[in-house]
Amino acid sequence: MTTKLPASFLPAKFQVLSGSALKLIAITLMLIDHTGLMILYNYPATTATLFSFGGVDYSWYRIFRDIGRAAFPIFCFLLVEGFLHTHNRKKYGLNLFLFACISEIPWNFMFTNTWRYEKQNVFFTLFLGYLAFCALEYFWDNQKMQLVCVLALLTVSVFLKADYGWRGFVFLLIMYWFRNDKTAQAIIGSCWLYYEWKACFAFLSINMYNGERGFVKGRFLKYVFYWFYPVHITILVILRKLLFHM
């Protein structure tokens, strides 16, 4: 499916990535990030300084984590695209919530090796953002209700302590509000991400999006990308246990 695209800051000849390609990039970046967090962090050789730049010491661990920062903005962009083009918004939202619940146990073990952890996984952040999109559209002609709903969901994000926190929730709103202007989306989104500036590189791939769905078609492949999150965390938890007995 091809859609009319908002203007990109990149020439048309560089807009070569389908939605499926963006999904592959996002999950690869996430895998790199989590591999750094769960595996490289425990190897002294990979945490040793390779070089210093701008007053920061870089190791293989730091490099993996920094590369992985670009995953979240791409997932946020894909969520906005999914919201705009899904044929069943109720089912889309239910899937986000279902996999948020499924992912909680692997997420908890990733950080504490126990069944409990005070913070929640990123699917909850995406789910709250999705609810905000729904509220903004439903109350399109009632700005007071829009504000009430957004503030209520923002409050939930604070108390829920989902991954990326309230800043991640606000970033999702930025991606939605500026969905029709990719240049403004990139500039304002990058300014918001000042605290994690490495994530701003995600806007390069986002602006290479060509509006096509790509190879992810059908129920099976769609759910492969949902399942990737809890499954890859589970595998890394097991691998960490085998390698480091922790």
TrEMBL record:
> Per the UniProt entry, what species is this protein from, by scientific name?
Blautia wexlerae
List where the protein spans the membrane.
21-43, 63-80, 92-110, 122-140, 147-178, 184-204, 224-243
Please list which residues make up the signal peptide. Answer: none
Q: What is this protein's name?
A: Conjugal transfer protein TrbP
Give the keywords, sorted. Answer: Membrane, Transmembrane, Transmembrane helix
